[in-house]
Write a structure and sequence with these properties.
This protein is α+β, with helices and mostly antiparallel strands. Helices cover 45% and strands 12% of the residues. Strands 1-4 form a two-stranded antiparallel sheet. A two-stranded antiparallel ribbon has the order 2-3. The radius of gyration is 19 Å and the shape is globular. Belongs to the cytochrome P450 family. One of its GO terms (cellular component) is endoplasmic reticulum membrane.
Amino acid sequence: MMAQALQFFAAGFETVSGTLSFTLYELWVNLQLQERLRTEIFDNFEKHDGIACEGVSEMKFLDMCIAETLRKYPVLPFLDRTCLRDYKVENSDLVIEKDLDVYIPMFALHYNPEFFPQPQKYDPQRFADKCKINNEGLYYVPFGDGPRICIGNRFGLLAVKIGLVSLLSRYKLEATSQTPRPIKFEPKALILQSNVGVPLKFVPI
């Protein structure tokens, strides 16, 4: 139990901070989205008298923004799986042999214009009907899928939500002289991250 608890914090620190940083960056770039999300936050505060777990879970546009961040900035650039039996790829002579390690590039899935038109654009509206995306196929898998799906996905999402709600209810976002545009990724990092960080200025509301 202790090892599992430690795993949540060890694996959840960089992933949560990365998702939080990239979301804040996109909300700075897209001011109208920042204002829309802040309005949802304040409306929810009135209903629940401040930050409440059930209130955070009700924020649909917050969910949409985080989902779009995880599409555009997948925390892990690839998924790795081990083939359990020989598998012949349909309409091909290719056979993936048993025990072969397979690496699935997340960017190839999440930036496929067939499923996500204008994939370079940050558009939370793609996830207005998230159930439809989840049910249509495995082209959006920020936490993996199947029996080895990330066990900390709910914990991580809740941490990101509370972080965003806490910050956006107190501050508006502005650029600094070091804020990159566009973001360039660190090529040697295992977990997706900017090569110069994501410096932003937090201005009290």
